[in-house]
Amino acid sequence: MRMTILNCGAIVVVGMLGAIPVVCARQNPGRVHQDLSVLPVQGNLYMISGAGGNIAVQVGSMGVAIVDTGNGTMSDEVMAAIRKLSDKPLQYIINTHYDPDHTGGNESIRKAGVTITGANVTGNISDARDGAQVIAHDNVLNRMSAPTGIQPPEPAGAWPTQTFLKGKKDLYFNDEAIETIYQPAAATDGDSLVFFRHSDVLVAGDVFLTTSYPLIDVEKGGTVQGTINALNRILEIAVPKHEEEGGTYIIPGHGRICDEFDVLEYRDMVVIVRDRVKAAVRKGMTLEQVKAAHLTRDYDARYDAKSALGSADKFIEAVYQSLSPQKK
Known about the structure:
Number of helices: 9
Radius of gyration: 20 Å
Mean pLDDT: 87
Low-confidence stretches: 1-33, 119-123
Strand content: 25-35%
């Protein structure tokens, strides 16, 4: 399925049934529009990409639940895409972690939803409150808010409304169990995997990507071992179909829809690079010496994002700091 936002204001979804026109979201003067891709994944799940981090959308008779909200620059278009998939109310937003490219749309998209707390005997909504519920690990709230007297980095309307401290948080919605599973010290200190059990789709956030090296943010509590542990957890959950194809599908934080084998290759790459850096640390090499050794050379063509956390240099730096914190 392909959704393209055209300059004329039309949205077209292209799928197995052909092109389907959709009413476009309100155009914002001065905004440079991008294309949004809307892809069916499996079961009740869809993936929206093109608005920052990937957004997962679950639809059903009870309403809509989404995982992450993008960077906030295309929230109108994201909501238009969601409304095309379902006319039911948006009730839940689950954040995989704190990064603004995944939570930037929290405030505006949350306002477009409702929290339904009851229904009468006919099934009609009897009690609905403004705004969808936002679920995340407690460390996400800690990083989006701030101690008293300090300006918080994000507005209060974007903060999680339900948090949990360890293990997982379970939700049953649209006749499906949804598990939000905390992954300690992975890319950050607040990462969660989100597993839709009936649809057999797992949303990985930034602990797994197809577009770059892992986005391990050491300053926000990320570690290479925690990232490996999270990738291993995905591999424990995912079950392939025939010849390692299909079965459980994984939505990465950025990039294409994947299956277990893609995660396996990525995990192996991270382990191999970690072991190379570990050997260099044992030899007493400095960070600059490790970078100069180009220990990711055989993977750079596929994963080096050239800049920021997804680059080879930043990945090596994060691995080195994870293994030798005294040398930060």
